[in-house]
Amino acid sequence: MPNNKRESLLFTFIMCFLMVLWMSIYNVARQYGHMGADVIAAAWIGFPPAYVFAMLCDWFVASPLAKGFAFKYLVAPGKSSPRAMTLAVSTCMVFPMVIIMSLYGAFEGALHAGTLAVVPMAWLTNIPWNFIMALPWNLLVAGPIARFLFRRAFPEGTVLARPQA
Fold first, then answer.
1. Model confidence, pTM
2. Is residue 59 domain-resident?
3. Which domain holds residue 112?
4. Where does the sequence pass through the membrane (predicted)?
5. Residue 69 in domain
């Protein structure tokens, strides 16, 4: 787990990259009805704006909501194990991010379709599909990879809370 705001931001960059890239590939594959190089290319083209949007939503909306809920109702900092806190926050992050990013995807699809009329149904349809992929991907793949990469790149105590003078 990150120990300060700087570590949290760096970890969020890694985690968001893994989640947005995979969920983009997944959603494009659902839309195209198959998996192939064309799906990966289309997902990669749409990745940069989705990544920026997801980072902003994660940092300013989802993370405060998830941490607030997890630490109020699920785990107690200092009393719960680090693993329990990680699982609680990671699980709670999926809910707002799926809702927000499913709406983003619905608007993106509406732009390609040329009509906003499809947004409400596309959004409501995408939420369960995205949730059943995002939760296990977050807990079983992206989270462990992000934590591993983060601690390999930034060993404990190497990212300072404030820059040294």
1. 0.91
2. yes
3. 5-153
4. 9-29, 41-63, 84-107, 127-150
5. yes
What is the C-alpha separation between 90 and 136, in angstroms, rounded?
10
Overall size of the chain counted in residues: 165
Distance CA 63, CA 68 (A): 8
Tell me if 105 sits within 8 A of 27, measured CB to CB.
Answer: yes
Residue 162 in any domain: the answer is no
Number of domains in the chain: 1
What b/e readout covers 28-65, taking b as 16+ CB neighbours within 10 angstroms? bbbeeeeeeeebeebbeebbeebbebbbebbeeebbee
pLDDT digits (tens, 9 = 90+) for 29-64: 999 999 999 999 999 999 999 999 999 999 999 999
Residue 116 lies in a domain: yes
In this structure, how many other beta carbons lie within 10 angstroms of the beta carbon of residue 13?
A: 15
